[in-house]
Amino acid sequence: xxxxxxxxxxxxxxxxxxxxxxxxxxxxxxxxxxxxxxxxxxxxxxxxxxxxxxxxxxxxxxxxxxxxxxxxxxxxxxxxxxxxxxxxxxxxxxxxxxxxxxxxxxxxxxxxxxxxxxxxxxxxxxxxxxxxxxxxxxxxxxxxxxxxxxxxxxxxxxxxxxxxxxxxxxxxxxxxxxxxxxxxxxxxxxxxxxxxxxxxxxxxxxxxxxxxxxxxxxxxxxxxxxxxxxxxxxxxxxxxxxxxxxxxxxxxxxxxxxxxxxxxxxxxxxxxxxxxxxxxxxxxxxxxxxxxxxxxxxxxxxxxxxxxxxxxxxxxxxxxxxxxxxxxxxxxxxxxxxxxxxxxxxxxxxxxxxxxxxxxxxxxxxxxxxxxxxxxxxxxxxxxxxxxxxxxxxxxxxxxxxxxxxxxxxxxxxxxxxxxxxxxxxxxxxxxxxxxxxxxxxxxxxxxxxxxxxxxxxxxxxxxxxxxxx
Length: 470
Prior knowledge:
Mean pLDDT: 83
GO cellular component, one term: cytosol
Pfam family, one: HTH_3
Keywords: DNA-binding, Transcription, Transcription regulation
CATH class of the domain at 282-433: Alpha Beta
Largest sheet: 6 strands, mixed
Order of helices and strands: HHHHHHHHHHEEEHHHHHHEEEEHEEEE
Number of helices: 17
GO molecular function: DNA binding; DNA-binding transcription factor activity
Family: Belongs to the short-chain fatty acyl-CoA assimilation regulator (ScfR) family.
């Protein structure tokens, strides 16, 4: 209780008025000044532990009665964190006073916001449906700068020609070193006086990479795998060496805010680091020879499974393109962390939210590669490859962050992909883009009814799906 600030001004005022006391009289009984009591009643000061105990002994008020009413305050904090209204409140005290003084009105606001969010989700799904049918829609929800950047990157090919050219030039300047990590450390030291050092977790409890400008040292956490250490070092190097090319690519994205452009700098920097570690022509050649075997590629270029998989989605150079892969990464809760594609992520053709995909089964089969053919309702067939990924090394008392990655392509390319050999002829998993847009009948995995069909409410029987429809 000592760590939690409790604002209960309206309740203190109600207690005082119910007993017919003035602020001066109540302040005297509590052993505080009238001015301090006035600040408390106006939610300008929180209740201290000592004051809570005094209220309990003098007025027989239990401390729990002065806490957040029914969880209203945490829920209101979530509502007012919405970008649409985040700037409307002066501070925490005003929100606490609203929850305390008008709890019924606060609950009404929560219901209204919930309805707004649900409606926004339905409109978003409807917008996708209209776009799929060739009808434009101007429906859009509230977007943060990160949302804007994500949408822009997902809808364009995951290929930056300027960055590829600069990465090839940088690689040539490094002399095509066999050990890129050693070469990058030497380049940073020679060109910028930066020394790369690995530090223990205790010295970098919240950082994976940190550059100290004063001592000219780049610190890497020992949590990082060798592949991640290479990536972080390459990221620092390309942000220095390829500044103009990165700036030009950011300008071409036509983002609307400085924050979105700053985020884009790191995203394109990541791309540049991959391009440097996995040069375009050698990687394309290796991908063709290995038939896009991601484990072979990651071993050959000394990168991680995720880095090699993401590089496959960038092979879209005119006249020298690879298999047009797309990629999707999620966490345990189903949050979409990354979507990209050589031709843009296929939102409408694939979706990626069907719970039957191997992407979601990968968490139960850690480290295993799950290759499947997946059929969409319109007859389009995709080849999908899913695998779980473990995050940074964790201590004994920490839980490893695990995500799942899916790499996919149109099934017509299966002969150029080693995973296509693992698929039984003629067999495919029937999936949909998302439950609200999927009209597959009797799907046991269905989580929501389709927007396009009326529900079938038959008291005489029940189908396999949680939502039967006509």
